[in-house]
Amino acid sequence: MTRFTVNGQPVHYRMDPATPLLWALRDASNLTGTKYGCGAGLCGACTVHIDGQPVRSCQVPIGSIEGSFVTTIEALSRDRSHPVQQAWVAENLPQCGYCQSGMIMAAAALLDKNRDPSDEEIDAAMTNICRCGTYPRVRRAIRRAGRVLAGSETIAAAPPPGIDPADAARAVPALATKPGG
């Protein structure tokens, strides 16, 4: 049994210790904000924080992080008020959105260490792949979030609308159809 803390809650996974953290989070804990992209640690869609460091969760066996603290996108801020999340919305960054949770987690880790990163520092920290090519907006959003964290700017944008989990779980009524149509 593997024990560590996920989003502030102690967990005991009764899974093979070689199970990638990504699958423990998604399948056993239903934390689906962490995405499966490549499974080889290259794309960054599965980025989470382990003890404050960004890591590709598809490459981390759960047995190797006994006693660690894991933070997923769901706990970065429960109301989407984290400056990186706010800057992402304010800069109209998401397109398809698949890579976004991993990028946000990588950006948050960067800004925890450096509130005013250079282009080179952003590029070095943001190795996540975005198939939509949002990289220029990623830089702008990171710079903006850094200014918010430093207290020199505020973002007036409200958190993006969400779906209440209770609403998402409701069954969709069957569509009525006309005979022959």
From TrEMBL:
Keywords: 2Fe-2S, Iron, Iron-sulfur, Metal-binding, Oxidoreductase. The keyword Cytoplasm does not apply. One of its GO terms (molecular function) is oxidoreductase activity. Residues 1-76 form the 2Fe-2S ferredoxin-type domain. Residues 164-181 have a biased composition (Low complexity). PROSITE patterns: 2FE2S_FER_1, 2FE2S_FER_2. It comes from the Bacteria. CDD domains: fer2. Pfam families: Fer2, Fer2_2. Residues 158-181 are annotated as: Disordered. PANTHER family: BLR6218 PROTEIN, OXIDOREDUCTASE WITH IRON-SULFUR SUBUNIT. This is Isoquinoline 1-oxidoreductase, alpha subunit.
